[in-house]
Design brief:
Blueprint (H helix, E strand, L loop, with lengths): L11 H8 L6 E4 L6 H7 L7 E6 L14 E5 L5 H7 L5 E7 L4 H5 L25 H7 L2 H12 L4 H11 L5 H8 L8 H16 L2 H15 E11 L2 H13 L7 E2 L5 E7 L9 H6 L7 E14 L2
Parallel strand pairs: 1-2, 1-4, 2-3, 4-5
Antiparallel strand pairs: 5-8, 6-7, 7-8
Bound molecules: S-adenosylmethionine (SAM).
């Protein structure tokens, strides 16, 4: 069998710099995966420092760091606050989230995340969750399916794709799905569009946007004053959510202004302009190409940001 790495972290240096690590601080990596970001954090902590690595996929547990300062938490970051409370942590100095799936998900062909190979339509990051891609493609009505494909896959042919899927039901495997959608894709764009179909279904199966909204709101409750929020996104909707949240302090992105027209926000945005991988990094790690990094610092007292 081909030897694969679990993951290669994107924007590693820039995101760790964004955390502005205090050696004795407490940090949480809510998307532990292969532990690339976590290892870099741990190497900057002293004996008093602490790191929690969270992942909803139990496969990541095999990569846990053998270090007394490290705790692995199996769970969804939508419940970050409860997890930290469970581990007796009242506040953290930094949160890092490197969203989406790991290389492992694409490389483990049996989990249904990729159109390479033929596997049951699964796509769950958390294998104890009950809702699978099979439930989605066989259970959603045509309009809802089209919406998922359009919103999360940015597929112009979303309506035609949804209609073809509904007509061909029931579908059981990724191969069944590919056979139905392939004739509707432009041959020159086939691979790209198949990836977008799979991405869209995966985002819906795992409730990724909702989990992100919950994580962002809870960051305000669990970060210590001066703490940093570091988020790497791979999809325009995620990035917009993070950008608006860091500007306004709420997931709706509603900006409240004071008498002078200055925005009331709990954040100081550290990355004025979004950070993306260099050409060099994309060449070394092509899967990093859509990564976008944003960093914000929780202001000690609710303050104002000039916009
Ligand atoms: C892009 S990978 C992170 C890779 C990691 N930074 C590294 O260096 O190896 C994303 C990871 O986050 C996990 N994940 C995604 N959404 C999650 C959620 N809502 N809660 C917990 N873990 C999640 C996935 O299972 C995956 O392992």
């Amino acid at each position: 069998m081909e030897q694969t790495v679990y993951h290669i972290p994107a924007l590693l240096e820039q995101s760790i710099e964004g955390l502005d690590i205090k050696p004795g601080g407490t940090y949480v990596d809510v998307t532990f995966g292969g532990g690339g970001h976590s290892r870099a954090i741990l190497s900057r902590l002293n004996a008093a420092g602490r790191l929690v690595g969270m992942d909803q996929d139990m496969d990541a547990w095999a990569n846990r760091l053998q270090d007394d300062r490290f705790t692995f938490a199996h769970g969804n970051f939508a419940f970050l606050k409860n997890f930290l409370r469970y581990y007796g942590i009242s506040g953290v100095d930094g949160i890092i989230a490197d969203l989406g799936v790991s290389f492992h998900h694409f490389d483990a062909l049996d989990r249904g995340f990729t159109f390479r190979g033929d596997a049951p339509l699964d796509m769950r990051m958390n294998r104890s969750a009950s809702f699978t891609a099979k439930d989605l493609v066989n259970g959603y009505d045509e309009q809802r399916l089209a919406q998922v494909l359009y919103l999360y896959g940015e597929l112009k042919a979303s309506r035609r794709l949804a209609s073809a899927i509904v007509k061909a039901r029931p579908l059981a495997t990724t191969g069944d799905l590919v056979n139905v959608v392939r004739p509707l894709l432009k041959p020159a764009q086939e691979k790209k569009e198949l990836s977008m179909v799979f991405q869209a279904l995966r985002i819906e199966v795992n409730g990724e946007l909702n989990a992100l909204r919950k994580l962002l709101s809870q960051s305000l409750e669990v970060l210590n004053p001066g703490g940093r929020l570091v988020v790497i996104t791979y999809h325009s909707l995620e990035d917009r959510l993070v950008k608006n949240f860091m500007r306004s302090g709420n997931v709706e992105g509603k900006q409240e202004k004071d008498f002078y027209g200055r925005v009331n926000t709990p954040w100081r945005v550290v990355t004025g302009k979004v950070i993306v991988p260099s050409d060099d990094e994309v060449e070394r790690n092509p899967r990093s190409r859509s990564a976008k990094l944003r960093v914000a610092e929780l202001i000690a007292q609710q303050g104002r940001a000039d916009q």
